[in-house]
Amino acid sequence: LNRALERDSRSTDAWAVRAALAEAAGDKDEQVYALHTQLRLSVAQKLPKEALDALRARLVALDPHAVELFSMNTRFIGTLEPIAAAYEKDGRPHSAIRVHKLILALDPERVASQQAIERIASMPDPSLAGDAKPKDLLADVSAEWIAAFDAEHATWEMRANLERENYTTYTNAGYEVLVRAAEAMEQMNRFYRIFFQYGTEEDGKSVPRIDLNIFKKRDEYLKLGIGPPVEWSGGHFTGGAVETYVEGQGFDGMTGTLFHEAAHQFVSLATNAAGWLNEGLASFFEGCRILPNGTVLMNLPANHRLFPLADTMEKGWMSGPSDGIDPADPSKSNPEKAPTFRIVVENNYAWGPPWYAPTWGVVFFLYNYQDPVDGRFVYRKAFREYVNASGGLTGNTAVTKFEEVVLGNPLPPIKGFDREGAKDVAQPKTIDELTELWKTWMLELRDEQIGRTKRERPYLRWANAALLAKDNVAAQEHFEKGVVANPKDVELALAFADFLAEAKNTDRATRLALAALRELESAKPVDTKAVDRVDRLLEKWDPKRGSIQKAQRELEAAAEALVGRYEAAARPMMVMDLSWRMGLDLDMPKLFAAYERALRSSGRSLTLWELAYDEKSLEGWDTGGNDSFKAAGTFLDAAFRDFSASEFDYQMLALQRVTSGDYSLEADVLAQRGECNFTGLVFGRKDANNFHALVFFPGVPRKEATKAVDNAWVDLASFYGGGSTKTWRHVPVAADTLADGQSGTGRWHKLRIDVAGAQIDCWVDGELVASHDFGSRDVL
Fold it and tell me: How far apart (Å, rounded) are the C-alpha atoms in residues 219 and 237?
């Protein structure tokens, strides 16, 4: 049963079996909890009314508090619905969503609120995505339904399609690819419009809808794609469609390709860019990240471009555009050194794979190079002008135009901002001088991404400087990045809220102020003056705050009373379920104390592991092109070369999953002495050479009677490429001992990592062996 729920935690049949087993064991707490969970999932999956009524009747007979739980909706929804409607009518989407989520926390089957959130979420405002979208785009469908859908649309002839505002997606790669890719591209389209300043409300220009053709297999893409595509390509833009495939690059790699190729539509519509600049601009978008709810994080480093570029920069500079390029097969060349800034801008080379990383690096640098004191983007404005001024120029003409438009017009220091004696950031006058600055900046970015160094980013100070310069666009960018990097920074949140309120966006200002208020109220001691100030701001910005507060106070009292009754009835699983769910969904942190009491007293947990390996194939995993790992039923077999005690080469198997928050990863591993030097769990992977890992070393074979030191251990380490590593923790662990005649113990060890924010805990066989704070979530 546990394995069934690990495979599909939304299976109503599995929860029904869990309830039946609990009943047979006389565990009424488990039975009641399982039936309530089955009911919630049945409502979400729109099971027939008769089945829902039967489940409710069964629960009422079994659980004396079920009626009170079911009736909470009628007590409070009548109060909340008019407030939600008024918020939406007044153009306050964040507030309307907040109230509708309160309603859905009470009544998950409330169709009106579900439709309202979906309607509001369709507004062209990326800040709504995190709140408005479901936490999981697959939350309302079961694994069985997805499997049936995927089987029906498994060939390109029977491909599924989903039409949205800006793209129509076609794919035979499965339902998850269909909905997640479609949602990601709609979000991405909004960023294209902002970046290229084309197709916005202000300019009124039209952007035609195009197709996204996502093939499951690479050979399908090469055979059935429009054109057909060139053999070395991972995707292409045809003018009316973007095409790519999933096989070998996984979902993240596939969306990176989509982000790149779809950008060509806007490059052609909004600019005169050609040659390297066309591809460099498109490559800029490969660094965007997609979260499980479809939200896209923008303007991030494309590490698969950054790391190879940094490696070649460290080895030196190409002497010219043909240095390291095989004239017989340029597309398969891999130059050892990097091109200089001049070589890239001169554009005297045939386009191919070797030039993606350098051109990405040029564009990302010019867009993001900052003064560390006032935070201004030194070349961003001038670079925008150069995009159109370049017009496909080559050679010395291109260099002269670049030096004239970009290097000749850096953004000056912000007037009136106190630099406290700090020097201005470097601003070379020639493109050849710029090359070394570019290298330094890229290597620092690489080191920051892998956790080797940490860079201070004072977003609030930068935002204030931008406001002083009357650059509200840059100020908002600093604020947005700041609240993501430091979500508990009250001063930053309130400054951003003030900024938004002045821009007449009191709706989002209210949301930020509420988050700040929660932090202030949870602090010890409480700063009552600060709390009073935020309360006054909320009263000013949210005219219906009094009504919401009254309803929430009554809700909190009812929820606390209900949790208390379950606690008195010795129903710890129901206590944990209600206190955690209502504490989060209804924003009632007081309930978490009851959760902790129930957790400690019962020793039970509501946590369900998700089975990452389907026990049939490596679907959803990235092998990195190696064949070291094989699916073998319930096991994953791993073999890499013949054993040698002196060799420490490795291969890795990566789970293709982007998490929206904290996570845990656990695996049972068999690493026998004399057969395997080490094994472990990788996390925070940037590429095959840059990652962090919990590494288990079983040690060398040791007989029972020997007096040799037993040297099994685990390391928590970071790998930086080029053989460079940093061991953060080195911990001895119990070693396996061989009896006479044994070649191995056959003992499995359970390895586990818990990632929470920038903190990681490492476990071996159920014991906590190491903890470390990496300082930044970006590193992980």
Answer: 18
CA separation for the pair 50, 40 (Å, rounded):
15
- Residue 336 burial by Cβ neighbours in a 10 Å radius (0-12, 13-18, 19+): exposed
Better-scored residue on pLDDT, 698 or 503: 503
Cα torsion angle, 212, 217, 220, 226, sign = positive
Encoding tokens for residue 720?
Answer: 């930086």
**Which two tokens mark 163?**
């039409």
Which range is least confidently modeled, 71-75, 471-475, 488-492, 639-643? Answer: 71-75
Reported confidence tier of residue 134, pLDDT bands at 50, 70, 90 = very low
Contacts of 380 by beta carbon, 8 Å cutoff, 6+ apart: 366, 367, 368, 411
Phi, psi of 96 (to 5 degrees): -65, -45
Q: Are strands 210-215 and 167-171 parallel, antiparallel or unpaired?
A: parallel
Question: Tokens 């904290």 label which residue?
Answer: 662
- The alpha helices in 301-414, defined as continuous H runs, are 303-315, 341-346, 356-368, 380-390, 395-402
Residues 24, 592: Cα–Cα separation, whole Å: 31
Mean pLDDT, residues 514-528 taken together: 89
**What span, in angstroms and rounded, lies between the C-alpha atoms of 683 and 662?**
12
**Annotation: CATH topology of 621-779:** Jelly Rolls (2.60.120)
Q: Where are the domains of the chain?
A: 140-297, 301-455, 470-543, 621-779
Burial class (CB in 10 A: 0-12, 13-18, 19+), 298: buried
Cα gap 137→133, rounded to integer Å: 8
The residues with which 703 forms a beta bridge, in sequence order, are 738
| Dist CA 676 CA 704 (whole Å) | 20
Whole-angstrom CA distances from 299 to 192, 363, 724, 736 are 11, 11, 28, 48
Q: What's the rounded Cα separation, in Å, for the pair 487 and 516?
A: 9
Answer yes or no: are the C-beta atoms of 192 and 262 closer than 8 Å: yes
Q: Vertex 257, ends 256 and 258: CA angle to 5°?
A: 90
Interatomic CA distance for residues 20 and 775, integer angstroms: 46
Q: Which two tokens stand for residue 170?
A: 């076609």
Distance (Å, whole) CA 452 – CA 449: 8
CB 668 within 8 A of CB 750: yes
Inter-residue contact 766 to 733 (CB < 8 Å): no
pLDDT band of 723, cuts 50, 70, 90: low
Residue type, 343: I
Tallying the residues shown for the chain, one arrives at 780
**pTM score:** 0.74
CATH top-level class for 470-543? Answer: mainly alpha
Instruction: Write the DSSP symbol of residue 509.
Output: H
Q: Which two three-digit tokens encode residue 757?
A: 């924010």
Alpha-carbon span 517 to 519, nearest angstrom: 5
